[in-house]
Amino acid sequence: MSLPSWPNRKQEASSSLTMSSFSAADAEIGSLSARHSVPAVFQGTAFTAAGGLMSYGTRFAELYHQAGAYSGLVLAGAAPADVPIYQSTAAELIVNLSSAKPPGIALPQAIVDQATTLIR
User: What is the pTM for the complete model shown?
Assistant: First the structure.
């Protein structure tokens, strides 16, 4: 998969990027944001691991576990309409400290303190 040409963000002093999609290009977009010093906030962890500044969102492993539990209840004979709805209340904040340095971002200490994972 190839991405459309990456804009020249060096000329735009206030450029930033916010992503909330899921695609095969997640890691590539995170890597591009780091390479071009564009601060980027994402929903998925692959972006941050590849160089994005931070991600905040649901813990997908928890949702996958819950989907398995739902499937087990239905396979055991429960009517899908009778299975209670579960809404995740757990979220994770992943901060990539090394991605904050090139664009010169000083992250507030409160964000660093509340991060569930810090990438140095």
Answer: 0.66
